[in-house]
Amino acid sequence: MADVWQSSMDHAVAVARKAGEMVRGALKDDRTVMTKSSAVDLVTQTDQKVEQLIIQSVKEKFPTHRFIGEESVAAGESCNLTDDPTWIIDPIDGTTNFVHAFPFVAVSIGFSVNKQVEFGVVYSCLEDKMFTARRGRGAFCNGEPLQVSEQTDALVTHLTCVFRVRGAGTAAINMCLVASGCAEAYYEIGIHVWDVAAGSLIVSEAGGVLLDVDGGDVDLMSRRIVAANNRTIAERIVKEIESFTLQRDDAPLQS
Ligand SMILES: O=P(O)(O)OC[C@@]1(O)O[C@H](CO)[C@@H](O)[C@@H]1O
Ligand SMILES: [Mg+2]
Ligand SMILES: [Mg+2]
């Protein structure tokens, strides 16, 4: 049966590649850094230009679709997920890495309909790795199928004291490492929906498990996530985490 979202997904892959070219080009230029919510929340003109590039090109092709983009939200746009087809965009996931030319920098595009992620595209642009997933149809890296690891002993991306730990500095790539079988798990409290919308589908389509840090179902607006190769490891991580609650991404704006 024809896939109604295939042309949107093809467009996402094409525009992510273009965005990656922009990011690679910008690495050769001066990278002027600004801050957003705190001294460690960085943004560059490249983040803003890449988001404009993606949104503009999607608007031309799919004028009725909606957007949640990191830099648009930072500029005051709302962050509410509706049932409408919605592009959830992190133009550069790993801005700190980008500023330092640390080679893990991703363009992340998730696409949801009826609040369900239909496809995810994460382009690790300095590695030239294009991760894709379509709901119900598997996850791929540069066209090769992805499968989570079968290990029962965990290598974890991000913070924890009981497992062996690595971190790429980008939620999107950390999740693709789990999907690729290079790490068994990733967890984080403090991410935003644009960091994980695409990566979450890539993990689940590669056979992985997603949980909230309290062990319930994952909620992409809650700013908390555990992604693992299997339920046993996900639940072990849930047991170890001292969880806390942050203001949700879709909390009403303060006036
Ligand atoms: O602001 P950016 O670069 O889009 O994203 C910030 C980020 O890279 O920082 C954290 C690193 O662990 C992750 O939560 C998240 O993906
Ligand atoms: Mg990000
Ligand atoms: Mg970003």
What report would you give on this structure?
By secondary structure, the protein is α+β, with helices and mostly antiparallel strands. It has two domains: about 5-145, Fructose-1,6-Bisphosphatase, subunit A, domain 1 (Fructose-1,6-Bisphosphatase, Chain A, domain 1); about 155-240, D-Maltodextrin-Binding Protein, domain 2. Helix content is about 30%, strand content about 25%. It has seven helices and 14 strands. It has helices at about 5-25, 45-60, 70-75, 95-100, 170-180, 195-205, 230-240; strands at about 35, 40-45, 65-70, 85-95, 105-115, 115-125, 130-135, 140, 145, 155, 165, 185-190, 210, 225-230. The strands form three sheets. The protein has a seven-stranded mixed beta sheet with strand order 3-4-5-6-7-8-9, sandwiched between helices. Strand 7 and strand 8 (about 140) form a beta hairpin. Helix 1 packs antiparallel against helix 2 and helix 5 packs parallel to helix 6 (about 195-205). The protein is globular, with a radius of gyration of 17 Å. The N and C termini lie far apart (about 50 Å). The relative contact order is 0.13. The model has no long low-confidence stretch (mean pLDDT about 95). The structure holds 1-O-phosphono-beta-D-fructofuranose and magnesium ion (MG) (2 copies). One magnesium ion (MG) binds next to strand 4. InterPro entries: IMPase, Inositol_monoP_metal-BS, Inositol_monoPase_Li-sen, Inositol_monophosphatase-like, Inositol_monophosphatase_CS. This is Inositol-1-monophosphatase. Homodimer. Its EC number is 3.1.3.25. One of its GO terms (cellular component) is cytoplasm.
